[in-house]
Amino acid sequence: MTATPLRPATRAKQRLRPAQRRNRRRNLRSALLFISPWIIGFLVFTLWPVLYSGYLSLTDYDVINDPNYVGLDNFRQLLADPKISLSLWNTFIYTVFSVPVHIIVSLLLAMLLNRISGRASGFFRTVFYLPKMTPPVAIGILLLLLFNGQNGLVNTVLGWFGINGPAWTTDPAWIQPGLIIMSLWTLGASTIILLAALQNVPQELYDSARVDGANSWQTTWKITLPMISGSLFFLTIVNTIAAFQTFTEAYTAYFGSGNSTYSNDAALFYAIYLFQQGFEFLHMGYASAMAWVLFVIVLAVTVVQMVVGKRMVYYEGGQ
Amino acid sequence: MARTRLERLQPVPPPAIDRDEEAGEHTRQRRPRRRGNPLARILTWAALGIATVLFTYPLLWLISASFKPRSDVFDNKLIPETFTFENYLTVWQEAPLALWLANTAIVTVLSAVLVTLSSAMVAWGFAYFRFRGRNALFGLVLATMMLPGAVTMIPTFLIWNGLGQVGTLTPLWAGNLFGSAFYIFLLRQFFLGLPRELFEAARVDGANNWHMFSRIALPLCKPALIVTLLFEFQAAWTDLMRPLIYLRDSSTFTVPRGLKALLDQFGFGGNWHWEIVVTASVITTVPMIILFFLGQKHFVKGIATTGNKG
């Protein structure tokens, strides 16, 4: 142990002349000055809220009266609340179906785009990305209109094929499928990310595979997918986290004042129930407990995905 | 989680946005167009054609429906049989639309400008200066991206409530004074791509830290600043949750919040005036479409940079 050389930093520190030390201090001061907006923001809008939310989750709090410490009551209540299990189940189903379909369809579109080039490619990228610019509120409204059971466009088109479409927006069994299909409309960003990844795959790999007699099915499985696995992995994680917190489209279409027309239990996502508890019923303690449960779930799912992903993702340059 | 996102994002060559045309040329050269068999080409174009219809039709239909009289809204025709501007007049009379647009403009412009400036400052602090604990601190920046918004939502509301700002537009933009982790990350990548010698030369010429940041670094990373401005502009314009939380009075509503109110009133309210809701949707969406066409190149490049490994 004694033979271990001093760490460079320590050695440098010993050699510093007073002028250098002053310089270094000034350097640190300017750096902190530039970073200060983030430091202030972090302390006020992240660190304190996280700590306070932890505290609130152990209280009853309605904003008007002071928080009332109740220990783990909120969490016990959570377990017994049927709407919690319902909203968790809805969120889970939505995530499990929408994320894989979203990524597979994006990948297919990206592969199609990768076969064409030039101005046409730019045109299609624009077309696929455009829906992503639509505000989620407007998407929620589009959902109600397009999937309308009587005269919506979706059922009209199904009718051309002799299919009698369901009452997508009012039949509890079809509300979720409608939301999931509608969510596919905004997959343009994923398509662009995957297209960029596809274009980064070195052409030499395909050339040498072809020399070895590989067909296009084999090159897809053995070259393309492993080479873009990093982007696929990134999209899986990001989309899963987003799906767990999905709110606006479903809230717009099925919740809010005046909505007594639709049965909406099937659209009650966890984030919507949390919002209702916190800001409609003013159960801020209960909502904080819910937020922590969400955090733990998201974290757990992400960790599992990362462990699985580590085996499946190919990183260029080892790792 | 934090590390993965970092690993994923870090190898991206920052000047990708810079060298737009060049990069395009590059890919084209490297990837000689596969002629393939004619059947495959026909299938490719057919699939792209079908996808194009699926992706554009809803938007075109929505715009067209806003020009139809109430009885025709659901007729699924792209060209209105009877063309009318009346819906727009009705929306204008029924809702304080000018006020909502003004509110949204204030929120979006302030949000985008503030978050871009503050994030750039912080990103520069992390990119240029070398100090102890820099990497740990930057890891913390990235880690905050992973925290679900729900955890901080309620205490943040209580802060603004304590400051008496609930019911005003302030909570919708003021948080942006302090930068945002994702943009800090994006901009730092760009700053790291700038040659260090440039700044050493500037220092010799007597430039101070602020000059180097504002006169040299910022102009050089204009493409990344535009990406940040566009992304935040879109995020602020389309946000519904925070306006739901913070805005009470219809005179302070942003356009999406107002649209939700119109839906509650005219859609669900038993009146079924869908033409009004449709028209208001178009008014909410069109500014985003214009924005997209203005900044198309930057949007696409920014998105591609976001999730692409190097």
From TrEMBL, chain A:
PANTHER family: ABC TRANSPORTER PERMEASE PROTEIN, ABC TRANSPORTER PERMEASE PROTEIN YESP-RELATED
Family matches, as Gene3D superfamilies: MetI-like
One GO cellular component, as annotated: plasma membrane
Regions that span the bilayer: 31-51, 92-113, 134-154, 174-198, 219-244, 289-308
Designated name of the protein: Carbohydrate ABC transporter membrane protein 1, CUT1 family
UniProt similarity note: Belongs to the binding-protein-dependent transport system permease family.
Region listing for Disordered, in residue ranges: 1-22
Bias (Basic residues): 10-22
GO biological process assignments: transmembrane transport
Major place of residence: membrane
Domain ABC transmembrane type-1: from-to ranges: 88-305
Subcellular location: Cell membrane
SUPFAM superfamilies, per the entry: MalF N-terminal region-like, MetI-like
Entries under Pfam families matching the protein: BPD_transp_1 (PF00528)
PROSITE patterns noted in UniProt: ABC_TM1
Keywords: Cell membrane, Membrane, Transmembrane, Transmembrane helix, Transport
Bilayer topology: Multi-pass membrane protein
InterPro entries: ABC_transporter_permease, MetI-like, MetI-like_sf
Signal peptide residues on this chain, from the entry's feature table: none
UniProtKB/TrEMBL annotation, chain B:
One GO biological process term: transmembrane transport
The UniProt record lists the keyword Transmembrane helix: yes
SUPFAM superfamilies, alphabetized: MetI-like
Pfam families: BPD_transp_1
Ranges where the record places region Disordered: 1-33
Keyword annotations from UniProtKB, A to Z: Cell membrane, Membrane, Transmembrane, Transmembrane helix, Transport
Superkingdom to which the source organism belongs: Bacteria
Annotated GO CC locations: plasma membrane
Ranges that cross the membrane: 39-63, 97-124, 136-160, 172-195, 216-237, 272-294
Major subcellular site: membrane
Membrane topology: Multi-pass membrane protein
Entries under InterPro entries matching the protein: MetI-like, MetI-like_sf
Intracellular or extracellular location(s): Cell membrane
Domain ABC transmembrane type-1, first and last residues per copy: 101-295
PANTHER family the UniProt entry points to: ABC TRANSPORTER PERMEASE PROTEIN MG189-RELATED, ABC TRANSPORTER PERMEASE PROTEIN MG189-RELATED-RELATED
Family indicated by similarity: Belongs to the binding-protein-dependent transport system permease family.
Identification of the protein by name: Carbohydrate ABC transporter membrane protein 2, CUT1 family
